[in-house]
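Hi R.,

Here's the chain you asked about this morning:
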Amino acid sequence: DPANVGNVLTFFLHSPLSAFAVVTEVITMTSDVWAQCNSLIDNAFKDLRTFIASQAHSIDPSFLAFMHDEFLRIYILRFLLCRAVLNRHRSFLSKLEYLPSCFPSLPN
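And here is the predicted structure, written out as tokens:
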């Protein structure tokens, strides 16, 4: 439902793991699994920051300027996670126009 796509993005921006659990229909999770998943997301964000830095030559400079602010960087990384999850989710495969987008656009 297109009306809920914005809600999903907002959920990912607020709590990426909770949003991921809802999108993948995970109903319950132990606190240990929750902690492990949060650790995996944190590690993925670190790897993504490193990757973005290595690809700085192909990314719009105005986008890179936001990566220097910790608050904005967190939102950018959460946006990228949301886009990646929804891009791979079966419910969105035929509805690419519903994926969140940004300007300037990011390389795939």
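One quick note: The two ends are 24 Å apart (CA to CA).

Cheers,
M.
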